[in-house]
Amino acid sequence: NKVKQIAPFVKLIHGVESHKLANEISKQAILLDTKIDILLQIHIAQEETKFGLDENEVLTILDVFSKQPLPGVCIRGLMGMASFSDDSSQVRSEFRMLKKIFDHVKLQLDAVTIHSFDTLSMGMSGDYKIALEEGSTMVRIGSAIFGSR
């Protein structure tokens, strides 16, 4: 239901954690005669409240996608959220792990000529500097701009 409601208004959806959700996004994009970019969400945090795929699940989704593309979506990259922690070494380690997964997946995709995989979204208002140092190409800094909720 949420996909149906937001599809007309978005260009990029962060946090896609299943092939089923990617398929639904594709269906809605096709109905709108458009293509929606997506980021696959990777679970990197040590918090149970955060969710996402592991590296093998990402590779499985991309393997299925390469054999049966979803015409309404373009997988642009990965997204992950580090643990909400003051321990910068933990946050750095989690971002570093995500960058390693991103590089591995990108290498696999380059072998099958999917070249639109160029976005690594990690880092929020409180940890974006570390994320940038670890290779983020996109940060989410809404709280720094608009204030806390």
Would you mind describing this structure in some detail?
A five-stranded parallel beta sheet has the order 1-2-3-4-5. The chain is built from six helices and five strands, in the order αβαβαβαβαβα. The protein has 149 residues and is α/β, with parallel strands linked by helices.
Compile the SSE list and pairings.
Blueprint: H1 2-6, E1 12-16, H2 19-31, E2 36-42, H3 55-67, E3 73-80, H4 88-111, E4 119-124, H5 128-133, E5 138-140, H6 142-146
Parallel strand pairs: 1-2, 2-3, 3-4, 4-5
Number of helices: 6
Helix content: 40-55%
Helix and strand composition category: alpha/beta
Largest sheet features: 5 strands, parallel
Return the average pLDDT rounded to an integer.
90
Q: Which segments are poorly predicted (pLDDT under 50) over 5 or more consecutive residues?
A: none
Radius of gyration: 15 Å
Order of strands across the biggest sheet?
Answer: 1-2-3-4-5
What's the β-strand tally?
A: 5
In N-to-C order, the SSE pattern is HEHEHEHEHEH
**Beta-sheet strand percentage?**
15-25%
Distance between the termini: 24 Å
* Tertiary shape: globular
